[in-house]
Design brief:
By secondary structure, the protein is of the alpha+beta class. The protein has four domains: 67 residues, Beta-Lactamase, CATH 3.30.450.20; 132 residues, Beta-Lactamase; 103 residues, PAS domain (Beta-Lactamase); 121 residues, PAS domain (Beta-Lactamase, 2-Layer Sandwich), CATH 3.30.450. Helices cover 35% and strands 31% of the residues. The strands form four sheets. It has a four-stranded antiparallel beta sheet, sandwiched between helices. A four-stranded antiparallel beta sheet has the order 8-11-10-9, with helices on both faces. Strands 12-15-14-13 form a four-stranded antiparallel beta sheet. The chain is elongated, with a radius of gyration of 37 Å.
Length: 463
């Protein structure tokens, strides 16, 4: 629950639920206050919560944007100190326009952030009325003067709206005006501090988020490579996209309202597997599986299925999203590869006149055929995991010749050599050696090694 980010007193007064309720009622809720990090420390946050609705105008969730405003809050509090400290503290701030207004609204100070955001130098702007930053309609309605009156009346005024730069361009600003009184005479108004942030990027994001749901819906409807649809909590189908129609064969009119178990083989339905999927998704938040599914015409396809539980702000289950991919082609390829690999293994294992085995990049033996057992003397159980250097004479081991051979094969794809090799019983034989570098689909390397007895009557083996 998002309440984990709130101080205990806010949780006790159910403030997180209140925020969601206000957002739902008014379309948007914004607040500032302390929030809690994982490590227990607190920060001052600006929070904007926007509700999301589906095409039936049903609430599907919320977007929550949180910004750490600890620096700004600290700046606000610091600005309540005397002007000397204020000036030394804020002059270097670049992300906020922070300046001081006289009681009549004329500008008395200017920081680097103000120059960066507004475009005026301190020399250009000092003594001018701060209404220069407002659009003409706001000036005509005396909104700048209204802001000062509210700050004077309540101590502080905050607003968001369009402001104008020196070059005439506009930006969306968050503005905080704080009334400053003489500490020795709290009725004597000394002026106002004004903190302005450029929130154009955030506002653009919010506006984009407001329109994103419809765009998202249109996007989902148009996806043809995935079946993407919503289920009600009871498993009946609530939405249907083009990909679902293409995969399953049903039109939207045919399938909406029917239970999604219609896509499962009879044995899966009999054992309650569709309901099991929903229960796992509800319990853990997500369920993924691969298996056969049934099209409208009765044909089967191999599917990857992801089911995600969808909850509302009260943690009530409102349904599930279901994404299905047709992996029949991949499944068929995998089955073909498995059969091919098994044929290859049986073929290699049956070879008795050549020692054929596979080693990894470090030279450890991973496979061993019957020919290797007969030629070199080790059984499979004895040799797997051992280094190939065991087959080399001592002088070759000391010269790191086995590693050299593998490196040559790695660099050039293949290495061939002839020389003495050592059997299990210590006897030696003169071998023709071919090492071939092999790569899997992830570019992982191993080496296929073939030994043959070299004699005047033997022929070389090429791989």
């Amino acid at each position: 629950s998002i309440s984990i980010f709130y101080p205990k007193e806010k949780r006790n007064e159910r403030f997180p639920e209140y925020e969601m309720d206000q957002a739902r009622k008014y379309g948007r809720f914004e607040d500032e206050g302390y929030r809690v990090r994982k490590d227990g420390t607190m920060f001052w946050a600006n929070v904007v919560i926007t509700p999301l609705y589906n095409q039936e105008n049903k609430l599907t969730g919320y977007i929550k944007i949180t910004r750490d405003l600890t620096e700004r809050k600290n700046a606000d509090e610091i600005l309540r100190l005397n002007e000397a400290k204020y000036r030394s503290m804020i002059n270097g701030v670049k992300d906020y326009a922070i300046f001081f207004l006289n009681p009549d609204g004329t500008i008395a100070s200017w920081n680097e952030g103000a120059e960066r955001i507004k475009g005026y130098t301190e020399k250009e702007i000092s003594g001018k009325h701060f209404s220069i930053f407002y659009p003409k309609d706001k000036q005509d309605s005396k909104f700048p003067e209204y802001e000062l009156k509210q700050a004077k009346l309540y101590g502080r005024f905050e607003d968001e709206g369009i402001r104008v730069r020196k070059d005439g361009s506009t930006f969306w600003a968050n503005v905080i005006i704080t009334a400053i009184y003489n500490p020795d005479n709290n009725k004597e108004l000394l002026g106002y501090t004004k903190v302005t942030r450029d929130l154009t990027e955030r506002r653009d994001m919010e506006q984009a988020l407001r329109t994103s749901e419809q765009r998202f819906r249109n996007l989902i409807e148009g996806v043809k490579d995935y079946a993407i649809y919503m289920l009600n909590p009871d498993g009946t189908i609530a939405s249907w996209n083009e990909g679902a129609k293409a995969f399953k064969g049903y039109s939207k009119e045919e399938i909406i309202g029917r239970h999604f178990s219609i896509f499962y083989p009879k044995e899966k339905i009999d054992e309650g597997y569709p309901q099991f999927e929903l229960e796992v998704a509800k319990r853990t938040g997500r369920f993924e599986d691969e298996g056969f599914r049934i099209r409208k015409d009765g044909t089967k396809f191999w599917a990857n299925v992801i089911i995600t539980a969808i909850y509302n702000e009260s943690r009530e289950l409102i349904g599930f999203s279901k994404i299905t991919r047709d992996l029949s082609e991949r499944k068929q390829t995998e089955e073909t590869l498995k059969r091919s690999e098994e044929k290859y293994r049986l073929l290699i294992d049956a070879v008795k006149d050549y020692a054929i085995f596979i080693v990894d990049l470090e030279g450890r033996i991973n496979s061993w055929n019957e020919g290797a057992r007969r030629l070199i003397g080790y059984s499979q159980n004895e040799i797997l995991g051992k280094p190939i250097s065991i087959f080399y004479t001592k002088d070759k081991q000391e010269a790191k010749y086995p590693q050299y051979e593998l490196e040559q094969a790695r660099q050039f794809g293949r290495f061939e050599d002839e020389g003495l090799r050592v059997r299990k019983d210590g006897s030696t034989f003169f071998a023709n050696v071919i090492i071939t570098a092999l790569y899997d689909k992830n570019k992982n390397i191993c080496f296929l090694i073939a030994y043959s007895m070299r004699s005047s009557n033997s022929a070389k083996l090429f791989i």
